[in-house]
Design goal:
Elements (H helix, E strand, L loop, with lengths): L2 H24 L13 E5 L2 E5 L1 H21 L1
């Protein structure tokens, strides 16, 4: 096993822990996520289909910026 792999697994775990704590304690402040203009939602009878297009684009851009900064300085 590579020692760097262990470091990446620990980093991924800490990242998920931080995200989980933020969602748990601040969900009432984050309710706008998934309800942005451009997110597609179809509802007919008991069936609801939801495509969070804009939310996923925003999340992708934010993650790319964070990863760029992390790679740049580390």
């Amino acid at each position: 096993m590579n020692q760097n792999l262990g470091k990446y697994i620990i980093l991924a775990g800490l990242t998920l822990l931080i995200i989980g704590v933020l969602v748990y304690f601040f969900w009432d402040k984050l309710e706008w996520i998934g309800k942005l203009p451009g997110d597609i939602s179809f509802e007919k009878g008991n069936t609801k289909i939801y495509f969070p297009v804009v939310t996923m684009i925003l999340l992708s851009v934010l993650l790319n910026i964070i990863l760029y900064i992390v790679r740049r300085f580390f």
